[in-house]
Each structure stands twice: as C-alpha cells, then as structure tokens.
Amino acid sequence: MKILAMDSSGLTASVAIVEDDIAIAEYSVNYKKTHSQTLVPMLDEISKMTELDLSTVNAIAISKGPGSFTGLRIGSATAKGLGLALNLPIVEVFTTDALAYNMYGCADLVCPIMDARREQVYTGIYEFVKNGDSYKMNTIMNASALSIDELTDKLVAMDRNVMFLGDGVPVFADRIKEKMAGKISFAPAHMNRQSAASVGTLGIEYFKEGRSISADEHVPEYLRLSQAERERNEKISG
Q1: Fewer CB within 10 Å: N-end or C-end of the chain?
Q2: Among 111, 115, 67, 117, which residue's Cα sits nearest to residue 93?
Q3: Window from 92-101, 189-198, 220-229 with minimum mean pLDDT
C-alpha cells in the first residue's frame, strides 16, 4: 500500500511517499519559511521526482497535532483538500507519536518535547518492546501539554533512562540535566525533528488497523487554546 504523508506541526516542513516498508521519497526543510510557501511545492516536487501516479495512493497521513497552530492549520487544510479532490481517506497521527517513532527500537524511554511556550511542552512518553523480529511502540503517556517540571517529575518517578528529542530540547536541556542527571540522552541531528516518513510509516500501520477517517472529518488536535483565544478569555474574565 502507498501513503502520501505530511507534517507541518513545527518549524520543520516534511512530506513523504511511503510504500509498504520503503520510504520512496522524503523532502524536509527546517528553515524560517511559512509552510504555506513550502508544503504544496514540496509535494509537487517529490511527486514529479518519483513520477507518482496519484491513483495508486491509498491514503493521506497527516500529523494531526499538537504543535504550531498555524502550521497545523496549513497541514490540515492541505490534507483535507487533497483528500476531497482525490477521494482519499485521512490517517491521523499524533505529532508526538511520529517523533517518538524516529527512535524505533530505542532501549530507553522515548520522550519527544516540543516548545509550547509559557514553560510548557507538548510531549508524550513511549517505549519500544521487542515483538518477534520487529518492535512495537507502546504509549506510556498520550500526547499532552505539560509544564517541563511536571514532565521531568513524572520521568524521575519512572527511574529509567530517557531519550529526548524535538525542538523543546534546546530550550529546556539545562533544566532536564538538572533534574535528571545521568538518566538522559538527546537524539542526534538526523533524528530529532519531525519526519513525514515516520508519519507515513505509522500511517500504514494505522490504516491496516482501520484507523482512517474521511477528509471531511479531519480536524487538527491543538490540546490547548491558542494565544489569541487565551488573551480573549483573559479579557472577558478580567
């Protein structure tokens, strides 16, 4: 089966084509451009480079959130538009799930952290368990918005080594080292940001399990109110 995958949940914009157990193409850019400028041209480019026949695509996998509100809206709109135009189902993948999947087979707990501002992170906690000749990713804590101190307290209580990755690492690395000295490691550059190939690989698994929806049904998962909504509520309550 063949999946067209996208992730625009953070600074990284990433698109991929994954077929069965092969990532046929992936195009990722981690630079200061808006995803409205990059996402569709990137899709067009990998489609041309791989001579993609859209009629052979089974579904569209999208990082549903959490993450940047603007980035998620752009990715969501792109996925919905393609899904409606091509009559394809949508497979939703939590951003933190896909980030954790970058570390497939890791012996430590895996903890993606995305900077959510106000001393908070979007995060989850995962582990990989040997399952025959492969690994199964277990979710210990679902995608959540927590303060960095709440998260590190949870991890300290688990008393296991933890692999961190995501754009929250440069922001909170010193705090993590203070709280968890000797129990941590940080993912290398080629594995520490969003990857549409991971979204697509998980998307294939989820699709086979029947976890797909129509393009009409898809909405991003923000986990918390946007800054504009928070400020409006503060004005109302004040």
Answers
A1: C
A2: 67
A3: 220-229
